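Bench log. Compound arrived from synthesis this morning; before running ITC I wanted a structural hypothesis for how AR6 sits in the protein. Inputs:
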Amino acid sequence: MSLTIMKGDITKAKTDAIVNAANSSLLGGGGVDGAIHRAAGPELLRECRTLNGCKTGEAKITGGYNLPAKHVIHTVGPIYFQHSQEESKRLLQNCYKNSMELAIQNNCKSVAFPLISAGVYGYPKEEALDVAVEILSQYKDSMELSIVLFDAEAFEIAKRKYALLTQNYKRFDNSRIVF
Ligand code: AR6
């Protein structure tokens, strides 16, 4: 079992669950949320309508419909500038923890995460990646976890931080870092 940081499009992930960086309405939006809803099809929105939204830092699970992933775990990251730095970090940590707890409860063995809050919600990418790695490392011995980075800038940050400066990875190339 492992934690992998990779470049890619999370809607293509063939995992038990993918995580969606949603908003509190859970009714879709832009960014990765829009991409997941487009790829999953309208049945996903229908199920999301029954969930009564989701608070920042919390998570809810649905089916994956037309996605290769079996489930979608919807979590709502903090809007970075609406909170103190400490509070944003705590809320982002909660997103990863609560998503993992739902994954465990639903017997998921593989989960792919986007870089929650690091787009429209304005969380600095490097700090957002630190939070993701910090929390997901705690679960990596019993699960196959991945952080799927869509933009080249985020992957360059990951390479600089976790591959070039440390030696504690199992595999490293231009498209993935495996811990
Ligand atoms: N696969 C993986 N990552 C992606 C993909 C993809 N297909 N598309 C974008 N990303 P964002 P947030 C990356 O803005 O900051 C929505 O409108 C993107 O490069 O999607 O949590 C929601 O409805 C970035 O690094 O999510 C909310 O209103 C990361 O996903 C709001 O945006 C997160 O960017 C949530 O904002």
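What the model suggests: The longest strand covers residues 2-7. Residues 9-11, 21-23, 29-33, 35, 77, 114-121, 148, 150-151, 154 surround AR6 (CB under 6 Å).
ITC booked for Thursday regardless.
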